[in-house]
Structures are given as structure tokens and as C-alpha cells.
Amino acid sequence: TKKITTQKFIELKKQGEKITMLTAYDYTTASIIDQAGIEGILVGDSASNVMAGNSTTLPITVDEMIYHARCVVNGVKRALVVCDMPFGSYQIGKEDALRNAIRIMKETGADALKLEGGEEILPTIKGLIAAGIPVMGHLGLTPQSVHQFGGYGLRAKQEEEANKLLQDAKLLADAGCFAIVLEKIPALLAECVSKSIDCPTIGIGAGNATDGQILVSADMLGLTQGFRPKFLRQYANLSEIMTDAIGSYILDTKEGTFPSAAESY
Ligand code: KIV
Ligand code: NA
Asked: Which of 26, 57, 212, 254 is 20 to 30 A from 139 (CA-CA)?
């Protein structure tokens, strides 16, 4: 199996082939997703919600992201592994961001990092790229800024914010980002951005015209309960499958039919 590179992402856009990504936070899930043939796996700071049960992504730490990313890297042979830089690890300054970025790259074996924001963090992104670290951008709904937005609603509905997003996308592309996540923005804006830059766009809640798609694996597999935004297509109902399996185990044990003679030593 040939490893997917950031260059491959750029080639796929050139060839007009859609790029597929999912999140993972652990070895076992990452192994399954990788073997299924995905191009990219994001160790998202959504681990804060999905793995730790926090209501935002803000609390997760660099140490915790390093743990998750190392687990994922251990399970992946082919996919590109991108790790989110968590809130607080790149906002203080260029040098501090580079120190944290180098730590994550060294201690995890991830292939690239993702940071939320545009022009505000451009010098930081350029610093990482200058150090040889591939960077994925993230525009639109950037969950680390939830307290500033006041919620998780659709972004860039108005012309002013839409224009800034397009401008930010061009800046990130010119700075050398190998891809940009576009989260929860109008499909028409995402299409305009995707056509305006050579850099691949990876959409989530951004319509059908982006160069690729990403979903939180636990959401699309139906593991997480109660999160049903309209952009989310649920491909399986793993929570139901797990509940049924656990119910059967409880019943068999209570009835004394588990373990059987064949399952005993
Ligand atoms: O943390 C995450 O899962 C993400 C994706 C939704 C893009 O940033
Ligand atoms: Na994230």
C-alpha cells in the first residue's frame, strides 16, 4: 500500500476526483477506516466532544491530542493523517505555535496539522510551512471560536463575511496550505471558493461542490446520539447495534447460557 501524501490531495483536485476524509481518535477505528480506503484521516479536536464528552472543543490539550494522534498513526498504513492543533496551542504567537506544532509532529508521526482561521493566523501558518510542516486550513464555522460566534449556526450568510472567507481562502492557498476545510457555509460560497483556488477544499455542511468531504466518523456511523444536523448523512446505526449486542450478553449471562462448554477451558 502506497501512502497518501499532501501532494496526492492536490493531484486529486487537478484530476477532478473527490477527496474523502473521516475523523478518528483511536487505533481500532483508524485501522478500519484506513482499510476501507479513505484518503485522509483527521485526528480532530472534536475528540473533546466525542471521546471526552465536553460540550466544546476548547478544553482538549496538546498532550491529549498527541495521545489520540499517536493511537491513530499506529493504526494507519495508507491514509494521510492530519492532526488538529487544539485551542490555545497556536494563538499566543508564531514561536509558541511552532514549538507546539513540532512537538505534535515529533511525538505522533502525523503527516500534517490543521489550524482554524484565516488572515489573523497567516504568519503562524507561514511559520509552520517554512519549517516543513504541511498545513490544512479551516474556515467558516470554526468551533474553537464558538463563544465569539455565540453558537454553531451557519456561517458567512452575509456578503461581508462571505467576502472575507473567500479572501482568507486565497491567502491560505497562497501561503501554501495543501487543503482547506470549509465548515457549515452556503453551498454556493463553497463552490465559488473551490473554483477560485487550486488548493483542494474539504467540505462539511458546505454542499456538493467542494473538492472533498469530511464527516465525524462517530456521527456518520450513528454512534453519537442526538446530533442530527441536516448536513449529516447517517450511514449506519452503530449505537443500536451495540445496544442490542450488550443486551444479548446481559441476557445470556443472567440465564447462565454464556459461557457454554465450548467457550470454557
Ligand atoms: O475536529 C473535527 O472533527 C473537525 C472536522 C469537523 C473538520 O475539525
Ligand atoms: Na476540529
From this structure: 26
CA of 198 relative to ligand 2 center, distance in Å: 23
ipTM score of complex: 0.99
pTM above 0.95, yes or no: yes
Mutation to probe ligand 1, out of 138, 216, 221 (largest number of atoms < 8 A from CB): 216
Three-class SS of 11-35: HHHHHCCCEEEEECCCHHHHHHHHH
Cα–Cα nearest to 89, from 122, 56, 58 = 58
User: Mean of the pLDDT values across residues 256-261?
Assistant: 98
- Of 65, 79, 77, 78, the closest CA to residue 108 belongs to 65
Percent of the chain clearing pLDDT 90 (strictly above): 98
Q: Is 180 in the pocket of ligand 1 (CB under 6 A)?
A: no
Using the atom order of ligand 1, give the atom closest to the CA of residue 216: 3
Spacing, Cα 58 to ligand 2 middle (Å)? 10
Q: Which atom of ligand 1 is nearest to the CA of 214?
A: 7
Q: What is the pLDDT of residue 212?
A: 99
What separation in Å is there between the alpha carbon of 21 and the centre of ligand 2? 13
Nearest to 214 by CA among 39, 3, 36: 39
Host H or E run for residue 203: strand 201-204
* Other CB atoms within 10 Å distance of the CB of residue 243: 11
